[in-house]
Amino acid sequence: MNQRLDFEIINQAALSALPAVLARVLPSGKAVHKEWVSLNPRRRDRSLGSFKVNRFNGKWCDFATGDKGGDPISLVAYVEGVSQSEAARLLAQMLGMNEGTRR
Known about the structure:
By secondary structure, the chain is of the alpha+beta class. The chain has one domain (7-94): DNA Primase, Chain A, CATH 3.90.580.10. The protein has four helices and five strands; from the N terminus they run ααβββββαα. It has helices spanning 7-16, 18-25, 72-80, 84-94, and strands spanning 30-32, 35-38, 51-54, 60-62, 68-69. The longest helix is centred in the last third of the chain and has 11 residues, at 84-94. It starts with 6 loop residues before the first helix and ends in a 9-residue tail after the last helix.
């Protein structure tokens, strides 16, 4: 049965485990106050500071390029260079989710 991924459920699960997700997706980062500050793996970033993810709501931005997103799925899509659907699948797999991720 080919059903659509439930982005809302996957994002909620990712937000519940966000510190672990961030450490896995952006291993060069570190927690600084309310943010995860990391090198941007999509460009030749050499110093921490411009690529940040809010550790509580998953919103992220690279202040050097203007790239940004509003949830964990969009972050994984950006970092991995894949579509939102593929990012949702990757994130669900990372979180050990199988059932309940589809409508």
